[in-house]
Amino acid sequence: MRKVYLDNASSTPILPEVKEAILPYLGEVYGNPSSLHDWGDAARMAVDEAREKVAGLINAGPEEIIFTGCGTESNNLAVKGIALAAQAKGKHVVVSAIEHFSVLNSAKTLEKFGFEVTEVPVDKYGAIDPEDVKKAIRKDTVLVSIMHANGEIGTIEPIKKIAQITKELKVPLHTDAIATAGTIPVDVSELGVDALSLAGNQFYGPKGVGALWVRRGVRIMPLFDGGIQEGGRRGGTENVPGIVGLGKAAEIAKASMESRISQLTPLRNRLLKELPAKVEHVVVTGHPQNRLPGHASFCVEFIEGESMLMLLNNKGIAVTSGSACTSRALKASHVLIAIGLSHEIAQGSILFTMGLDTTPADIDYVLETMPPVVERLRQMSPLYAKFTKAGKGGQ
Amino acid sequence: MPVYNQKVMDHFMNPRNVGEIENADGIGEEGNPVCGDMMTFYIKVKDDRLEDVKFKTFGCGAAIAVSSMVSELAKGMTLDEAMKLTPASVADKLEGLPSNKMHCSNLGAQALHKAIEDYRSKQKAGGK
User: Fold this and answer.
1) Under a CB-based contact definition with an 8 Å cutoff, are residues A49 and A67 in contact?
2) How far is CA A62 from CA A53, A188, A288, in A?
3) Domain A16-253 has CATH 3.40.640.10
């Protein structure tokens, strides 16, 4: 059976070059980077080299990179760390309604420490109006955190414009760039942000490693108290193999970014255009153009995402869904609700995220497999039965 | 381990008794799309027994498997026997469901009970 992995937003595969780069650090290079002998030096040099590569990916200074355990940790450290370090100045933070849970729940935790949180809404495409950010900022605002792009609907946010506002109002801006760093050009100077999160498994690096970039001069309270690793901002012995892998993935991503984008964009555009043409009552979620290169997301009406996902898996296609049934909490995706979809429509969420291994033939296979899968579930669906009966009755 | 066991997967991949019954003797609907799952059961009754049971379900793998299992179990039962089916007994027959699927997705028995109640109230109204 054909195997088609279209869940790169959940995790990309690890590139062979990245795996090769990691292997010595799972073997002969085992020293602790903090140790003052040859074994330690070898590990430390590898970490330093990776730091330069990660900094290079986002045009930052290497000393401003903090390695973390994952994207979630980077977001936690940014949101809680910056807000808590600035709490003498004020106790208000601004986030968007479609942030990842690692940002939203960090903001919720801040509420327990007496902070107030303002959520900025999004339009039907999931785009944030910078003017809404401006309106949300108060005298006591100590942090704005707005994602660079949303992993669920693919929409890229106007971070540069938002940064102009936060700069003018002298409020630090953090951006969750986990969906974008390594995927589209991300330049911290050009964007004008003050802190930025990224994660290795989003661009062909390993899991279990991420980074937070914090502009020099922005104070941050560590989440992990420990030694002086990462400038005292993240204690704990470094995950040397993971960091090396992240560095290698960053280096390759920077060099091959343009070719990756030109490979993925046409595949995405085809799926966005042809799936709704092949299957009736399918809506594209997220922005039609201003979206991540390999990202095509939809809601299929009258059926539910998990059952669609399971039938596609049975046909060798891996996808994901934001339906309530798919989530462990059994709640519809807050992102789909924030863009104004009803719970019923949000239940039909399906997300295809393409990667370097994706071929045009894979897209053909998806376009061929989807119609019978949808039809099968619709024939079972009481909602579809009601819809077709109402349609006939009304005409 | 995958989320669903083989029994559940079998009922999901090959659901029994999917469809509607024209001029059904009773129809029962349970659930709503907000919670995630919606099930409609149709029954045909003869001599106080469920001669035919069919269903339509909007929902996840568990919801479809539960509906299928309920329809299979209920077919041929007397109405009183069918009224004794519970979400727990259906889950047992499926050899277990993930814990977070025990509530929302496990509404098949209730939908069937509503169909039986619908039949009984029609009988009463019909003066029989």
Assistant:
1) no
2) 8, 12, 36
3) yes
SS3 content of chain A, % helix, strand, coil (to 5): 45, 15, 40
Does the distance separating the beta carbons of B39 and A304 come in below 8 Å? no
The domain locations on chain B are 6-122
Within 8 A by CB and 6+ apart from A79, the residues are A93, A95, A103, A106, A107, A110, A143, A145, A174
Is the CB of residue B62 less than 8 Å from the CB of residue B97? yes
- Catalytic residues of A, by residue number, are 325
Q: What are the phi and psi torsion angles at A183 (to 5°)?
A: -115, -45
| Token pair in block for residue A57 | 């990916």
Q: Which residues of B touch A349 (CB under 8 A)?
A: none
| Cβ separation A325–B36 shorter than 8 A | yes
CA distance A108 to chain B (A): 24
Tokens, residue A254: 């920077």
Domain range annotation of chain A: 4-10+258-394, 16-253
Q: What's the pTM?
A: 0.94
User: What is the maximum alpha-carbon separation in chain A?
Assistant: 83
Mutate to test the interface with B, among A380, A383, A384, A386 (most CBs of B within 10 A): A380
Task: For domain A4-10+258-394, give the CATH superfamily.
Answer: Aspartate Aminotransferase, domain 1 (3.90.1150.10)
- CA torsion sign for A370, A267, A186, A8 is positive
Q: What is the pLDDT of residues A274-326, one digit of tens each?
A: 999 999 999 999 999 999 999 999 999 999 999 999 999 999 999 999 887 77
Residues 6+ apart with CB under 8 A from A32: A39, A40, A43, A237
The answer to whether residue B99 scores a pLDDT higher than 90 is: no
**CATH node for B6-122:** 3.90.1010.10
| A316 CB neighbour count, 10 Å cutoff | 13
Smallest CA–CA distance, residue A75 to chain B, in Å, is: 28
- Reduced to 3 DSSP states, what percent helix, strand and coil does chain B have, rounded to the nearest 5? 45, 20, 35
Which residue of chain A is at minimal alpha-carbon distance from B30? A382
- Pairing relationship of beta strands A92-96 and A141-145 according to DSSP bridges: parallel
CA distance A372 to A38: 62
| Rounded Cα–Cα distance for residues A299 and A294 (Å) | 17
ipTM for the complex? Answer: 0.92
Chains A and B form CB pairs within 8 A to the count of: 73
Least Cα separation, residue B127 to chain A (angstroms): 30
